[in-house]
Amino acid sequence: WDQRKDFEFLELLNTGSGTVNLAGVAFTSGVLFKFDTQSSIRHLQPGQRLLVVKSREAFAIRYPGVDPALVAGEFSRRLDDNGGEIILTSASAADIARFSYNDRNPWPKEAAGDGHALVLIRPESNPRPADPANWRASINGPTPGSDDRLDLGSWLTAGGFIDPNAIRSGYPFSNAAVYALGADLLSDPDD
Asked: How far, in Å, CA of 177 to CA of 187, rounded?
């Protein structure tokens, strides 16, 4: 398998309080995928996630613990790490999401094909996906179909910290405030 191609995936999460109808929804740039013709998943319930993958077979081998029912289907083309653009459109062709991403600074460098995924920080707050500051690298490699956020205690342990009230060098806030703001513990604040 070609790791840079066959194991790629995109994840959608319904952060709203109502069901999202996927009729007419499509990825139209970056990757190509039409929910009408390529998926049996027609609705996304509140809090529900779904995955669109490059290869179902490769994905199942790499992530055997992920429920195959979460996979909406396979996209064509591939993600471009050099400033690619993702466009997700509604049935009326209006943009649901349109943004460019990269694998270089200021984007999280750990997600540059080295075993981590790009994860939107606090997606329930509806952050702007075009802003690299709203993304972080996944904590322990990709966790498709689930949330990889840690509780404060686990977050502190992962960073080698003990005191939530201590102020980490390079940050103007306590460890607990940095955690609450969704800062990327794995990155250097001076990068």
From this structure: 16
> What confidence tens digit (pLDDT) does each residue in 128-160 have?
999 998 888 887 778 888 887 777 887 788 778
The β-bridge relationship of strands 43-44 and 20-21 is antiparallel
Whether the predicted pLDDT of 105 surpasses 70:
yes
**How many CB atoms neighbour CB 67 within 10 A?**
10
Of 120, 122, 102, 121, whose CA–CA distance to 112 is shortest? 102
pLDDT higher than 60, residue 112: yes
Residue 12 half-sphere exposure toward CB, CA atoms < 13 A = 29
Q: What's the CA gap between 83 and 134, in Å, rounded?
A: 16
Q: How far, in Å, CA of 180 to CA of 148, rounded?
A: 15
- Model confidence pLDDT, tens digit, residues 49-103: 999 999 999 999 999 999 999 999 999 998 887 778 999 999 999 999 999 888 7
14, 41 Cβ separation under 8 angstroms: no
Which helix (H) or strand (E) segment holds residue 21: the answer is strand 20-21
Q: Which helix (H) or strand (E) holds 56?
A: helix 56-62
Distance of alpha carbon 54 from alpha carbon 63, whole angstroms? 13
